[in-house]
Each structure stands twice: as C-alpha cells, then as structure tokens.
Amino acid sequence: MSTPWQxxxxxxxxxxxxxxAVLMFASFLLGSEITMSTGSRPNAVGLTIALAVVGCGALLxxxxxxxxxxxxxxxxxxxxxxxxxxPTPLLLGGLMLALYRLAVDTDRPTARRYYVGSLTLxxxxxxxxxxxxxxxxxxxxxxxxxxxxxxxAGNAVRLQGAYLEAVHARAxxxxxxxxxxxxxxxxxxxxxxxxxxxxxVAHHLALxxxxxxxxxxxxxxxxxxxxxxxxxxxxxxxxxxxxxxxTVGLLRQTGDVDLPLAPSPGLDRLAELTEACESAGLTxxxxxxxxxxxxxxxxxxxxYRIVQEALTNVTKHSAAEAARVRIGWARDSLTxxxxxxxxxxxxxxxxxxTGRGFGLIGMRERAQSVGGAFAAxxxxxxxxxxTTRLPLYPGATEPEGQGTP
Length: 405
Fold this sequence. Notes:
The protein is of the alpha+beta class. The chain has helices at about 5-10, 15-35, 45-55, 65-80, 90-105, 110-130, 135-140, 140-220, 225-250, 270-280, 295-315, 360-370; strands at about 285-290, 320-330, 335-340, 375-380, 385-390. Helix 3 (about 45-55) runs antiparallel to helix 4, helix 6 (about 110-130) runs antiparallel to helix 8 and helix 8 (about 140-220) packs across helix 11.
C-alpha cells in the first residue's frame, strides 16, 4: 500500500526531482567546504560549483535516463575528489541518489556493474589526484560503504514492488478464475435445466400425442376402449405437470446447484415408463442381466432419462411396434441398451444421424456428465439402437472389493 508521500511523488515526479537536485546541489557545496583540504593549491571554488551543477543537475533525468545520470554523477564526483574534496556522504549524495534510482528501475546485475564502475572511478581519483596526508580508509572504504547503501536499498524496493505486483496479479487471476467458474456453473445449470425440460416435455407430449391419436382411431372402431385410453392420457399429462413443476423449481433453488430434482426419477420407475409407452401402442420388453446394485442419485436419474428419451425417440421417429430395454449390471458399471424392432409395415420416419438432434445430444451429454459413454445408430437388421455405459461410482474411488469385471 502506497503512503501519501509516495502518491505525491508519483503524481508530481518533476517537482520532486527538481527539489532533490537542489538539495543535492546544496549538499555537494556544503561537503566541499567542510572537507576541503588545508594544503596550498589553486582556488577551485568555481570548478567545484560547476561540477555540482553538472552532477546534481543530471538528477532531473534520473527517471528517464538512469544509466546516463549515474555516469555523469560518478564523473563529477570523481573530479571533485581529484580536487581534494573527501568523498563523504555530503559529496556523494547526488551519486547515491542516482544509484538508488538505477537499482529501482533496472535489474541487479546492471546496478552492480554501475556501482563497481562508479566506486572505481571515485576511489581512483581520490587516491591518485588528491593531496597526500588523507587517511586511506576515508578515500576507499568510506565511499565503498556509502555507495553500496543505495544500491542495496534500491534492490530491496524493486524486489518488494515485484512481489506486490505478483501478489496483485495472482489476486486478479483468482478473481477472474472465480468469475469464469461462476459463469461455467451457470452455463452448466442452464444446460441441466434445458435437458430436464426437453426430456420431460418431449417424452410426455410424444406419449400424449400417441395416446390422443390412438383414442381418435379407436373411437371409430372400438369405442369401448376410448375411455381407458383417455384415462391414461390424463395420467400422462398429470405426470408431465408434476415433473415440469419440479424442473422449474430448480430456478428458485438458492442452495447447491448440484442437488438433484425432488422427487428424482430413477430406474425404480421403469415399470411406469413402460406402461405409459404401451398405452401409446409401443410394446416394451425389459431384460435385466446381472445383480442390481445401489446407484447414486445422479447416475440413477441419468439412466432413467436416457431410457426415457430413447423410448420417446422410438415413439416419435419410427413406426416400430416393439422396443427392447436391456439393463446389464457389472461390478463397476451399468450398461443400458434400447433397441426397436424396425418391423413396421409403414415407412419409418427419418431418424436423425448419430450426434444430431437434441434427443441424442442430450443423452450423450447426460452420459458424459457422470463419466459414461454413449453410442447410437441404425442396426444392420433394421431398427435403431442406443447403448450407454455408466459408472456405478462416478468421481469416487470404488468400494473395497469391487473391481473391473
């Protein structure tokens, strides 16, 4: 989090740089007066002021040309040291500020190279050109320590800024991921509701249409059976209304969107489904192979809806008189096969190709949603076949003792 001073410095960079240059200019002159060598030599006040103007004036461009500013500052400071001025913090202030800005704006190797170069230049000038009698630690160790301080501080500030940027980037990525996940869950929920509405509406309307057509036909030939068929038609529409109410209720759920429909139909209602189909003129033969096992609510609903949609397609898209449902139980999977006889004398209605039509797409999506596999196509001997293999324990480890058949 930036402080008020940092915000002011960022918003008024030119003003801050000008104030820093003026302050370093005053520090340079003060340092030259305090540390002036006492030995007799030509008056160098004018040259010292000129060096201060050049070295500290370059700080006005420290944000745009940090390397050039360091080079100019190091040259001016070295020239002042050659005149006999001790390289104390007052004299080194402008160069220290330039090295700090360079360390903040560039990488560590660059700051290290410029630090070594500046130190070599200043120390060489102080040792070689300054008058004798100055203790050597003041000309070597002292400037090395003072020039190293801004480089270390600048690297620390740069690393902290990079860390904060990385944290901010991760936070933005996490926020985008949450938003994308929320949109993904909304899209999945819309697809789930669309599949339920399609299955409920398509199945019951197909049965109601078939029952109504049968009643209209029998009203002329067997009027005594019309009453029974009309009763079955009323039951079909009532069942459709109940399932539609449960499906639309999903739109009002405020809890977990993965909760199943209530009540959730399953294979235990397969008998009701076959009776409804038979009332529409389609005979359904059910064969169970293997030992039935408990199913999760999602797999049970998926299995029921796939069988329901397959029988609906037989009623809607073919003139077949019979269909067969095979339920095969294995140790870790459930296989569902729905076929029609394809022996009707009337020409069959066109059957959508595999992967086309909302019915087949919905069945495939349902199977894949629980980790299953789906296949559908025409049979060699006539008719159509839908095959689905569903795992008994989707997304979970199999119970102990259960293995692949």
